[in-house]
Amino acid sequence: MTAVIFYISAATATVATAMVISSRNAVHALLHLIVSLLAIAVIFTLYGAPFAAALEVIVYAGAIMVLMIFVIMMLNQGDAAVDQEKAWLAPKNWYGPALLTAILLVQLLLLIFSGAEESAQRIHYIGPTEVGIALFSHYILAVELASMLLLAGLVGAFHLARHKRIETSEAPDAD
Amino acid sequence: MPTETLPDLLTGLTLSAILFCLGLIGLLVRRNVIYLLMCVEICTNAAALAFVVAGAHWDSSDGQVMFIFIITLAAAEVAIALALVLQFFRRRHTVDIDQLNGLRG
Amino acid sequence: MQDFFAPFLAWIPLLPLLGFVLLIALPLFHLREPPEAVSAVVGVGSVCLSALLTLLIMWTLFLNNPSAVLQVSLWQWLKVGALQLGFDFYLDWLGMAMLLVVTGVGFLIHLYSAGYMHGDDGYRRYFAYLNLFVGAMLILVMADNLLLLYLGWEGVGLCSYLLIGFWYRNSANGDAARKAFIVTRIGDTAMLLGLILLFSQFGTLSIRALNTAAASAPANNLTVTLAALLLLGGAVGKSAQLPLQTWLPDAMAGPTPVSALIHAATMVTAGVYLIARMHPLFNASETAMSAVGIVGALTLLLAGFSAMVQSDIKRVLAYSTISQIGYMFLALGVGAWTGAIFHLMTHAFFKALLFLSAGSVILSLHHEQSLFSMGGLRRKLPFTFGCFAIGCASLAALPFTAGFYSKDQILLKAWEYQGGFNGIWFTGILGALITGFYSFRLLFLVFFGNDGPASAQCKDANNGVMTLPLSVLAVLALFGGLLTPPLQRVFTQAPAGHAPLWVEGVAIAAPILGLALAWLLFRHNTSPMESRGKSALEKLWFSGWGFDWLYHRLLVQPLTSLARINRNDILNSIYNGTAFICRQLHNLLSTSQNGLIRWYIASFTCGAIIFLALLVVL
User: Fold this and answer.
1) C616 with A101: Cβ contact below 8 A
2) Which of A100, B53, C116, C479 could form a disulfide with B12, with the two C-beta atoms 3.0–4.6 Å apart?
3) Where are the bilayer-spanning segments (chain B) (predicted)?
4) Is A148 exposed, middle or buried (0-12, 13-18, 19+ CB in 10 A)?
């Protein structure tokens, strides 16, 4: 049963991701991305990490994607953008990246399966309690650093996104 | 509480590799900045998946801790990047990443 | 008495050097060119003082004492391992004879120059160089070790270069100066090698120690021969002997008093002095001695033939100088040390006189130097004519002139060499005949016959400061034969034997025969050679036996063509190539730095692929 759910989720995630990178409409792409993220959240649950799954849904599929939605709305490109995407996504543009990435994938898989003898081991359940204990004991310093990173991101984003009158693109910022 | 054995380490890592490569293809092919950001999210998410899978396999909470840090990083990165995209669009009226080549040698 | 005079010895070269420093430093105090009188007083005065000092020392110490020796050690110069050299001066009668010539004749020529160079832009510069020259020459003469001698040797070479190219605005003069410098440098390099060889062999550069060591070395020692030949190389370069004689005729580009002082009286005889100074070394090697003699004999003849056909008054004198120094080398080669130095002295007198008189003629004719433009000047320049005639007579060694005594001594000694009739002696006699011929050809062409084209504008340019040196030199050229330096203690040589009377007769007759020939051919100044053009032989002689052509073909042209091949510096192309490759790589990397983020990501991917491939393979 778990296996079936896993494969369905994995297939959903893969297909949704493929849709993301080939979609021509930004909002559609974003929706596909959310589907993909939700599918990965399911996989997290299957791997005995419910806390991670919850964060995936709340932070990724929730907060971050909403942020992107906002930005797409603010850019408001409309149908012209779709036509442009069509032009940019001509089939010949796909060959090179696909080849490179295929090679990379083969290499990754080769590396992953070179350690195959240990794969039969069981999966362990790790609940929020253990994660919380680890975070606030062993990783407390990193948590503080992460909080500062978020603060810096907040301030930086606020500063950068301010709508200032723009004289010329080269003009220095006049504060 | 041990779960069933099927979703093992190799399957999870394989999925993570596939997702990462899909994101990478997107990064290489797309020219719209918004798509690029989404592809970056796919890549980081794939990496986070690998951490969680590994943590589950080795019975360690470190995998999920790392996932939390990655998610934090992604949040900060997306916030800054989107602000930059907004400014870029305001100044150039385009979202083509290839127009941002002012640092060419 | 000797201790009292020893410190004064150092002042002899120091005074002209001080004069040089003062002359070049004068504008620093005045911020403008000093008047000619100041330059002349400093330049002439310093040499005058050292001449007086020399005379004083000569008078009090040397006059009645043939074995007088004066030495002073000023300071340690170099001290490296076994090499210990000092600024040591050493004076014996050989040095004293040279000292008298250099300061005495030098002073007279300085005095003459004060009049001759009047109105020249480089008046002060001229006297500065001249003083530096006298200083360097005095160091050369008084040096107690070979390296100090070499210092003076190079110093006079430098001054020779500076003064030949004195009128540097004419590029031909610069070329002549460079030629002189480079050709003598070939000889100097040989000499330096000789010095190094001597030091490595004997462990000292002190002249007296070397002479003692060489005298006690086994006969015909290879090292001694080689060292002597290398020193001969230096002497040959400096004294313009075969095969390095080509620079001296061109050196006439300098002012005429310079030709008199440097290229006739003093510097070019430095080679003779060097060989005389090192005579025990040369005595120890028969090969070196015969080399000296053969070089002298050949040069004597070749230069004499060239002098017979020259058309420029100074070039005749230049070739005659080469020829007369050939006599000195011949004398050295046959062991007539005293004769060589004696001839050096008399030659300094009469050749300086000839050059200075020629300078007067040239100045009177407004810098006309072609013989065939002159003629009949006897009536317009009677004083100069008198001086010139005395000089020619002395040069040709007519009986009872100064040149006669010295040349006669050499010829007698040459006769004794190999005990009787021999090639060297015969060359000497032939040379005497040629000398008589060309010196009187010169005299007749300039002063006899009809007026030449330039004679019409003749205006006697002699003034007081010029006539005084001419008069003194004329007296010396006539009676200088009585001033035999007492060199018997310096050179231990066998007393002269008795040659048959007819040998003496031939030696007297040869120049007179030359005179007669010149009289027949050039008395009327209308040279038959001039009217019918030159034969091939005359052309060969005129060009100085084609040595310039030969060296040009043999040395200069291969070098220039090599240089042309290597115009872009073949070796440098390695470095240029490296730079080129770097630049191309830079361009390559620069194009890869194209500002496209997707391109960078692709590069990341490639890098990751390569890295992972390494992991997979290993």
Assistant:
1) no
2) B53
3) 12-29, 36-58, 64-86
4) exposed
Per-residue tokens: A130: 């253990």
Packed helices C146-164 and C270-277: angle between N→C axes, nearest 10 degrees: 170
Q: Measured between alpha carbons, how far is C475 from C104 in angstroms, rounded to an integer?
A: 13
* Dihedral Cα C201, C202, C203, C208, nearest 10 deg: -150
Mean pLDDT along residues C251-263: 86
Looking at the DSSP bridge assignments, the partners of residue C72 are C89
* Distance in angstroms (rounded) separating the CA atoms of residues C597 and C602: 9
**Coil, strand or helix: which one is C96?**
helix
pLDDT value at residue A15: 95
Cα dist. C388→B58, C231, C315, C425, C447 in Å? Answer: 120, 35, 16, 28, 9
Domain parsing of chain B, residue ranges = 9-93
CATH class of B9-93: mainly alpha
Among C445, C440, C441, C346, which Cα is nearest to C393's? C440
**By three-state DSSP, how is residue C312 classified?**
strand
> Prior bond to C243 cis, omega within 30?
yes
Residues 134 through 173 of chain A touching chain B, CB cutoff 8 Å: 134-135, 139, 142, 146, 149-150, 152-154, 156-161, 163, 166, 169
**What pLDDT sits at residue A39?**
94
Q: Rounded to whole angstroms, how far apart are CA atoms C210 and C280?
A: 9
Given a cut of 50, whether residue A171 has pLDDT beyond it is no
> DSSP letter string over chain B?
----SSS-HHHHHHHHHHHHHHHHHHHHH--BHHHHHHHHHHHHHHHHHHHHHHHHHHT-THHHHHHHHHHHHHHHHHHHHHHHHHHHHHHHS--BGGG--TT--
Query: What is the Cα–Cα distance from C562 to B21, expressed in whole angstroms?
Result: 64
Please give the Cα distance from C113 to C123 (Å, whole number).
9
Domain boundaries, chain C: 568-617
Question: DSSP of C8-70, one letter per residue?
Answer: HHHHHHHHHHHHHHHHHHHHHHHSSPPPHHHHHHHHHHHHHHHHHHHHHHIIIIITT-TT--E
Which one of A89, A95, A100, A111 makes the best mutation probe of the C interface by having the most chain C beta carbons within 10 Å? A100
Judged against a pLDDT cut of 80, whether residue A101 lies above it is answered with yes
Cα–Cα distance for residue pair C465/C384, rounded to 1 Å = 14
Task: Compute the distance between CA of residue B76 and CA of residue B72 in angstroms, rounded to an integer.
Answer: 6
What does the pLDDT look like over C561-615, one tens digit per residue? 888 888 877 888 888 899 999 999 998 888 888 888 888 899 999 999 999 899 8
* Residue B45, pLDDT score: 94
> Is C616–A111 a contact, with Cβ atoms under 8 angstroms apart?
yes
Placement of tokens 């990165």 in the chain: B77
pLDDT digits over C483-502, tens only? 777 777 777 765 556 667 77
Judge whether B19 and B3 are in contact, CB under 8 Å: no
Interface A-C: count of C-beta contacts within 8 A:
21
Q: What angle do CA C263, C268, C271 make, to 5 degrees?
A: 180
What ipTM is given for this predicted complex?
0.89
Phi, psi at residue C211, to the nearest 5°?
Answer: -65, -40
Residues C519-552 as b or e (16 or more Cβ within 10 Å = b): eeebeebebeeeeeeeeeeeebbbebbebbeebe
Residue A126 contacts residue A48 (beta carbons within 8 Å): yes
pLDDT above 90 (res C450): no
What φ, ψ does residue C84 adopt, rounded to 5°?
Answer: -125, 115
Tokens standing for residue C134: 């006298």
Share of chain C above pLDDT 90, in %: 7
pLDDT tens digits along C377-390: 777 888 888 888 88
CA A42 to chain centroid, in Å, comes to 15
Residue closest to C209 by CA, chosen among C289, C149, C153, C280? C280
| Amino acid sitting at position C607 | G
